[in-house]
Amino acid sequence: MDITQFVVSSRDKALLYGDYSTYRTQLAHRLLNIRKRLRVATRHRGKYNHSANGIKVEQVAEDVSYVRLQLLTAERAFAQAMAMKAAHASNKKGITGHTRSHIVSRLDKAAKYAARLSDVLQDGASGASDSDRLEARAYAALLRGAAAFEKQAWELCLANYAAVWAIYSALSSAAPTRADVFRDLLTDTLEPSLRYAAYQLKMPRSKPIPIIAREALASAKDVAATPDPAVLVSSVNKIDPSILQPKTAATADGSESLESAAPGTVGGVVASTRTLTWRSREVKIEDATIASAWAALDLAKARLEAQLVAGGARMAPKDQAAAYDDVLTVSQDAVDATKAAIDDLRNEGIPQSDPNMQLLYIARTAANYEMISDRIGRNRVLTGPHDGAIVQAGPIVAKASRNGGGKKSKAHAQAQAARPEAPGRLLARLKEKVVLYDGTLQSLETVKELPGVAADVELSEQLDATAKYFVALKALAVARSHALTGNAANALALVKHAHDQVTEADPGLKGSDTSSSPKRDSPLRNIHVSAADVQFLQDLLQAELQRARALVDIEKQQQQQQSAAGGAKAGALALSETLGEYPQGAVDLENIVTYPPRIQAMPVKPIFLDIAWNYIDYPSKTAAGAAAAAGGVAAAAKNAASSGQATAPAASPATSPPATQEQPAKRGWFGFKR
């Protein structure tokens, strides 16, 4: 029969180019045509037959046009009422009493026709399906709710609109092909009307619509075409049992109920009230949105704990931190819900001294505390085991060979595992830890600024001790970076500072109340630092302190030895300057050359002497050469005579060989360019 589709399409076509007056005129023509077709139209100048508008079950079973007749009649009365309302909406005085009563009478008439149609369709002989019966009830309740809205009878209006909302929500999930029609009605008409009626009845604005509809149907006394509202609720639950319960972040997919994981739930439906316990204070939360958010937070934490237990040590720190995203999202929803509730009360002019406002402030502090605690827990997971106190080697990733050699890849991975990690990479990981510690310390400062935390002396002392614990971890990470770069003295100072900080934090963390801390066997990490973590860090820092002192002592001794050896070698010449002497002892390989080099004198032959030699003539150079030649001849003759050999007669001056001509002097530097 498609009752809803027929009504919505008729209204859309008429209002596309006109108003409700045009719609009423069109309905009059359509009513006349359908009455003529069914042969129930009044003759010309004939008496009007009131019984012609009444329909029977047999007529509906034979022809669906009788259903259309009832719908058009109801719509005509509705259009007349809306036309009058639109005509008087622009008046400064508004809608007067007479006009309002006329509008209400038209809406009552429309509701009666719709209720009569619903009663006829409830009979099984009519041939109507279950969805047709529900749509008829919804249409009758919609018109009755509009009439109660104009009467300002808010309880009756809320009950009828709640029935319409429940029916259309169930049908939208059961009939995907017509889901758009139902959703448009829910979004544009029903939900704003429900909210306004709930506001008039002094209900919290943050209460979810499913809770409003469920409570309204539970206490309803008069719903159009519905003798017993419990029957209507059971019909809706048969189609979709999750309609009359709020959709939280944990149950939006409908795959898991909150009953098994979150307290405060009954039969898989989130309770509209919840008792919140925080710091030995019990707060009863009456806001359904906040209660649902807390229930969803409990379920998200239960899922996270199960995931961490299943993963165990096989999960990498990044994977464990990624598992915290759902918990952080739900905790942020809880914070937003508390803030929205406080803002609503402020807008209504409720003072801060009001008990409801004080309870909401406590809930807001608890929600912020839980959100920041989970954020700190994720940072602790990212730093590694024992909050990053232990230095872990980076992951070794073996690249497979191009030829597909698996043995080579394994051998390469083993070789890299045996090789120590590069200092640069280790420094980068230490820097990431320092950033995480800074974020944790900033989150702790945010917790101290929450309302009510400063007045809690025990909690403030615990937060101060926790801050000192993370300051010690940060100082340890920075000390290790100094040790890698060779600054042993700075590393010793930082390790000593870390040891002092964790010693001061030890009494505050071990003596704090652990009632709100997680269980010992729980893998969840949050703001609470256990006594075992403090003791482990204290023992580790004690060992690191002794190690740093030993390194500084060794460095000082080496510096003294080097300074003594350097003083003895200060006057010794370098080996490169004494190459002409054989070393008497062992060769000092640390003094091969003079470093750093310095400017010093070097013996060289002046170049101007070579230039001068080319231009200087000595006076005795020619005479000395002739005397030397004569002396040589006389000596040769004397030697020959003494040996008894015949000597040749001396050559006369005329026959003597001519003297050699004197060669010209060489010019140029070092004989070049001769």
Description:
Pfam families: SRP68. Keywords: Cytoplasm, Nucleus, Ribonucleoprotein, RNA-binding, Signal recognition particle. It is found in: Cytoplasm; Nucleus, Nucleolus. This is Signal recognition particle subunit SRP68. The model is unreliable at about 250-270, about 395-405 and about 645-655 (pLDDT under 50). A two-stranded antiparallel sheet has the order 1-2. Strands 3-4 form a two-stranded antiparallel sheet. Helix 5 packs antiparallel against helix 6 (about 130-150), helix 6 runs antiparallel to helix 7 (about 155-175) and helix 16 (about 425-450) packs antiparallel against helix 17. By secondary structure, it is mainly α. The protein folds into 3 domains: about 5-240, Orthogonal Bundle (Hyaluronidase domain-like); about 245-385; about 430-565, no CATH class. The protein starts with a helix and ends in a 32-residue tail after the last helix. It is built from 21 helices and 4 strands. It has helices at about 5-15, 20-40, 55-60, 65-90, 95-120, 130-150, 155-175, 180-200, 210-220, 230-240, 290-310, 315-320, 325-345, 355-385, 405-420, 425-450, 455-485, 490-510, 530-570, 605-615, 620-640, and strands spanning about 265, 270, 275-280, 280-285. Strand 1 and strand 2 form a beta hairpin.
